[in-house]
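Lecture 7 notes: from sequence to structure.

We start with a single chain of 381 residues. Read the sequence below before looking at the structure.
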Amino acid sequence: MSKVHITKCEDYEYQKVEAAVSECFEAMPDVKEKLFPGARVLVKTNLLMRKHPDEACTTHPAVIEAIVRYLQALGCKPVVGDSPGGPYNEWNLKGVYKAAGMVEMAEKTGCELNFDTGVVEVQNDKAKFLKTMQIIKIAHDVDFVISAAKLKTHGMMTYTGAVKNLFGVIPGVIKADYHLKMNNTANFAEHLVDICEYVSPLISIIDAVDGMEGDGPSAGEKKHVGLLMASASPYALDVAAVNIMGINPAIVPTIAAAEARGLMSSKVKEIEFSGLKPEEINVEPFKLPKSINVNFVGGRVPKALERYVTNSFRPKPVFDHSRCVGCGDCKRSCPPDAITMVDGKPAVDLEKCIRCFCCHELCPIKAVDIKKHWLHERIFG
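Now the structure, written as tokens:
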């Protein structure tokens, strides 16, 4: 039975965060015993794009600082990093680190920020599909990885937390290749589980002090939750998290894929909780993305109807040209190259569009909306 620890953390005042993070580690003595002096540990944070910590899009720097200081107290050598959206180069990393408060965090703690943009190809014996994959070099070089995720809804995958956070070990534009090759939600979920199985984080922590609901992972609305949660099992942690969010685990593709492989159970009663228990937590259910059930409905309707609706009436990206600044990030981030710039503004070829919603996810000014067809909304809600 997997163990999940949940503790209150009402805001990002550092002393409160430090106490909550320390409590999470101390609740996992088996994890702590593995961390030896001199161990190099990647703190894999969620740094999707250049967003201020107050926007609840990226893992808060106070949480990362507390993890770093805990590791340093054990004599470990933490390095903080991620491969954000866009090209995996030093210029992009510098901009994202600065916007997300990681530069200031590193200055306070003296920890290393990763600027090694090397890429290595690895064999993944645990994989179902990704037997060979390219990952950022730092994830290969360290002794351990700690996943420090953010509690958010996600336009393509319904929810993003511990498992989805590890997609950030895939370098920059290679992410787009994976989206294109595995262009439906169920296949993409299998790919995410393959990555998680390879990385095998020592512990996963979810920053749920402030999360994001609605059209996450970047264009949703901030939602206060007031929690930190942790587990040695990223799968069990995600089950606990979606239960707190009021999301049915059956509609979360990564949970369905992991359960089908026997990696965990989607039933909360199969999890051992320490600290707070889910029934003691009262959170208003999270609003779901407009794009929910684009390619995955967890058996809620007959397969024939599912295929007809998803192919004919599925949600689509819509560009607000009055807000658009013509930066072209949507075009550059589009895996099937379905977006062209016409008179400096984006236009999408829906025949090519695979509904990954990378354009929506990576738009810096929220100028991309997701529009549902009325029939899709009538059937799936």
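The mean pLDDT is 92. Keep this in mind for problem set 3.
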